[in-house]
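Supplementary Methods S3. Input chains for the assembly prediction are listed below.
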Amino acid sequence: MSAIPVLLLLLAASSTNGPGETATVQVERQELDSTESLRFLRENREFLRGQLDRLRTRSEWRTSEARELSAHQQWLRGLDRDLDAARDSLGGEGDGTRGRDLLHRIEALATIETRLDHLDSLLTAQAGRLHAIERDYLDRQETALALLATGLPDDEAVAILVHHVDGDPVRVALDDVSREALRRGAIATLLHDFVEPRLHELGLSVERSDGSTHELGSVRVRAVRDRLTFVQVDLESADPPSTLKSEAWAR
Amino acid sequence: MRMRTPLILLILLGTSATGARADEAPVAAADVAELATDAARAWSDDARLVYVENDARVGVDGRAARWGFLFWSKTRDEARGYSLRDGDVVEARSLGFDFDVPPLTAGWIDSDEALRHADEAGGAEYRELHAARLRNMVLTRGLLHLDEPDRTTWTCVYDADGQPSLWIVVDAASGDVLRRWKG
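Predicted structure tokens for the full assembly:
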């Protein structure tokens, strides 16, 4: 505050009051009132009270890390101090009862907190396992095709040839055990390979012991992206040569 | 009329001295915290310090001529603020609204040290780049660092024209910088 207003104020004060007045006190108060105390708090009152609400409701209070446990212990200690203060200031039997209620509540809270910590640790461990499984699953995701076959189309068959329209043929040899298994209704894997995620057309033919071959038919299947697509074909349905009876599914 | 002249001289001296003290004798917050606590205890035995902020401009050394302290009394269910300047309580009044926040932990580092850490963590650079000034230093517990609600923290708020404010939260126990953001 500048000296001029001070002078004016004091002159006015001294002219209206007696000479013994302590005008210095008046000047001091006027200067202080010009600056509000705790201004930031008042200006941000709603924000800070919102933060306080969040503080009271955040789940982080209940996590099980060491620092959080320490925070919780101190919080409980604060409640204990509250209890002491309540006893000191109020006293009496009724207040003692209230104190015991508070103590019981603290104990109950501690028990609940322990349980929550335990649940948190279980959830954390479970989340870790799921994450590992998910990562493993995602890492292994590829587009693949498995061609399964049932039935034996020819007793003289020594091999099944799988012709990919735009790829090299694959020869799948059949030994006696395989032939017998197919004859009895077993399923054989003719092809299992990574493929492009698109529609594929596979031609199948049989190779006899004399070296001759004859066409069995074809199968169309759409390989699903990042999935393993199975197509099961019935080789005995290849008469006459045409589209073979098949069933497809993806995993 | 003879009495007016010595009275005016007395007031001029007082005013001059007050201004000089306010401008030339800034202190760190902890320097006057004990006096504020004594004042609050006179108001209520269970008064606990819950909040501190600068009531006057904070210098680059983390000192201010005036600091505000807020205490909470559970028995009174009321918050009361004390503003201290030059070793005196120059204002004491109820906050006027509910503000039952956690009490500050003991042993908090002083404002000058806290500001030094904040400046080293980008505050000084921000001040230099944008001609910014330190608007506020606020000592709270948990309110401005919800991830670790038990920590008492100093929050330094830097302002610059045309720029978002820079907020730096410093752990009031260790001096570690916990958080920075602009907004």
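Strands of chain A lie at 144-150, 157-164, 170-173, 187-194, 199-208, 213-222, 228-234, 242-243, 246-250. Residues 58-137 of chain A form one domain.
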